[in-house]
């Protein structure tokens, strides 16, 4: 059984998938299996995935599913099929530097950490995007910073498989911000390890990206946080049938102590910012809905 299971979810990205897979197969750490989860692609992606598997020296396999459009659901399919001690996730449009797996594996086996992540290089259409303003706590107990924004890139993560199963994996019903939601569930109680080197390359370009699909990614962060707080936030675009929201019957049991107060405070703040933006864009009904939800939370 491989030490690390690498999971790449993909939908209609044959060229990008090939580049991502090559960056996995060229890792200096070789005790891994590569699981490509094809989310019902309708172009040449399945053929490319099968070719990668055939050329992967027995280390690669392909899982084909009906199209769900939910990255969390696709990752969860890979998680359930994985046999490695550790899991590592790679989005199909991202890349790893050759020593990424080795450096994280050494860190986690030495420290006993359940989860680690790395710094990223951000590229947009081939040009590096400055991260000078990205000043957040990235290791240890980082819940307070993870509340404010998604500070952990999925493609940077390595996590103990048993711990991932224990914590329910990704939310399978969120089209966007499913990573933000999962990191909140994890960082409320887990100290996260971090390598302060850009071992992951996060890419954006002219290809389709879920984060650009609706032009209101903050709504999905609100929906993710609302779900964890037990609030109802209607008006999203998620009408797809999915597998169970979390893996293996896992049930979220809520925030503890001061974390609940902090989460409510951040939720109210995010609601205010989002409602203000809606009004500026003439979406008054949407703004009113969010403002009414905020009032009800404050009354409680």
Account of the protein in words:
With 300 residues, the protein is an alpha/beta fold. It folds into 2 domains: 4-207, Alpha-Beta Complex (Spore Coat Polysaccharide Biosynthesis Protein SpsA, Chain A), CATH 3.90.550; 211-299, no CATH class. Helix content is 42%, strand content 17%. The chain is built from 11 helices and 9 strands. The chain has helices at residues 14-25, 45-55, 71-81, 100-111, 143-148, 161-166, 178-187, 210-213, 217-229, 257-280, 284-299; strands at 4-10, 32-38, 60-64, 86-89, 95-96, 115-124, 127-128, 158-160, 193-204. Strands 1, 2, 3, 4, 5, 6, 7, 8 and 9 form a 9-stranded mixed sheet that branches. Helix 1 links the parallel strand 1 (4-10) and strand 2 (32-38). Helix 7 (178-187) runs parallel beside helix 9 (217-229). It is globular. The termini are far apart.
């Amino acid at each position: 059984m491989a030490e690390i299971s690498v999971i790449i979810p993909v939908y209609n990205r044959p060229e990008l998938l090939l580049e991502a897979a090559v960056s996995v197969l060229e890792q200096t750490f070789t005790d891994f299996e590569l699981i490509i989860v094809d989310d019902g692609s309708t172009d040449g992606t399945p053929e490319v995935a099968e070719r990668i598997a055939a050329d992967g020296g027995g280390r690669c396999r392909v899982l084909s599913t009906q199209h769900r459009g939910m990255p969390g659901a696709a990752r969860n399919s890979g998680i359930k099929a994985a046999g490695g001690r550790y899991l590592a996730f790679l989005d199909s449009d991202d890349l790893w530097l050759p020593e990424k797996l080795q450096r994280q594996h050494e860190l986690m086996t030495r420290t006993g950490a359940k989860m680690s992540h790395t710094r990223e290089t951000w590229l947009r259409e081939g040009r590096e995007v400055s991260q000078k303003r990205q000043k957040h706590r990235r290791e240890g107990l980082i819940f307070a910073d993870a509340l404010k924004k998604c500070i952990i890139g999925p493609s940077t993560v390595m996590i103990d498989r048993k711990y991932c199963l224990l914590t329910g994996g990704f939310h399978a019903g969120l089209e966007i911000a499913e990573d933000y939601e999962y990191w909140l569930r994890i960082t409320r109680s887990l100290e996260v390890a971090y390598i302060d080197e850009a071992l992951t390359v996060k890419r954006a370009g002219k290809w389709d990206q879920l984060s650009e699909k609706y032009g209101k990614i903050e709504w999905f962060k609100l929906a993710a946080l609302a779900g964890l707080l037990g609030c109802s936030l209607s008006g999203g675009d998620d009408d797809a049938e999915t597998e169970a929201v979390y893996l293996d019957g896992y049930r979220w049991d809520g925030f503890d102590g001061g974390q609940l107060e902090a989460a409510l405070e951040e939720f109210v703040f995010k609601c205010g910012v989002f409602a203000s933006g809606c009004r500026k864009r003439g979406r008054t009904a949407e703004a009113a809905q969010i403002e009414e939800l905020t009032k009800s939370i404050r009354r409680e």
